[in-house]
């Protein structure tokens, strides 16, 4: 294999990985900042209902 | 105090420099415009001599990027008032490109005024507007490219949901396309990774949808409730991935990208609105049993596509 191709592939992997990491962290931060507290009782009540529909 | 004075002096100097740099000498040829397919019209500040204008050797026309290739001029005609001059070319011009017109040895009122060069180019706003209208109507993504049909049929039963979906979609597509334009121009292209564009764009679209979902849930719960399930459905729409790919293919700049994305989004909104208006009425129509529901919707969409074909081949500006 041509070492140029390997270099290109590794570069691509690194770049895409870093893009993914960057946006992933961004999303996680956004989710943390804009978190909406959900009343846990909503889930509990839903569990207790019959749930046929 | 002294510092302030120095800063003021510096600012004044800078302003003088900038103003001086911007100032241009008076130009005798005021403007050059395209007219029809093979004409360029020059407008002069004052009347020029008819005997000078009669010789077409005084004019050369070339595309701005290649000054060596002079285009053939068929005839030159001066209007009676002497300020408007029409150059007719032998072949149609490629008006996407700016053209340079060199005007040699101008003579006005018997006085020689020297040579000058002017650029004839299409108006940039006209170009942007043409992209917008093209994506909105002429090349409507739903009716002439048949993209995004799944979401189109899924959400066009009621007018209110159709409009909600259209607005959400416009929102998301503008954000996603601008981001993918940025990423394509400044990351993928410089690193020669443009063969990975589809994967990156898919990621960006889902990222945008997720981000809008998260932020909207907190900031405007009412709007979030109104959007409901459609926000997530946008991910499954192929217009939202087609637009970044078209942008990357055509090497659009930021404003062109914005216009294309806006046109695509509003075009989808228009298609959804038209379709839902018809489908609300179809509920009361006497449709044969085997055609009820989706089949008749497909037929209606086909009729819409036929009528949108009336716009095809139209060109503006």
Tally of helical runs of chain B: 11
Strand content of chain A: under 5%
Structural class of chain B: alpha+beta
How helical, in percent, are the residues of chain B?
40-55%
Q: Give the strand tally of chain A.
A: 0
> Mind summarizing the main beta sheet of chain A?
none
The tally of structural domains of chain B comes to 2
Distance between the termini of chain B: 56 Å
The low-confidence parts of chain B are 20-25
Average pLDDT rating of chain A: 84
Order of helices and strands of chain B: HEEHEEEEEEEEHHHHHHHHH
Distance between the termini of chain A: 58 Å
Rounded radius of gyration of chain A (Å)? 22 Å
Strand order, sheet with most strands of chain B: 1-2-6-5
Major sheet of chain B: 4 strands, antiparallel
Major interchain interface with per-chain residue totals: A-B, 15 and 18 residues
| Helix content class of chain A | over 70%
Oligomer: heterodimer
- Kindly name the structural category of chain A: mainly alpha
Tally of separate domains of chain A:
1
What letter string, H or E per element, gives the SSE order of chain A? HH
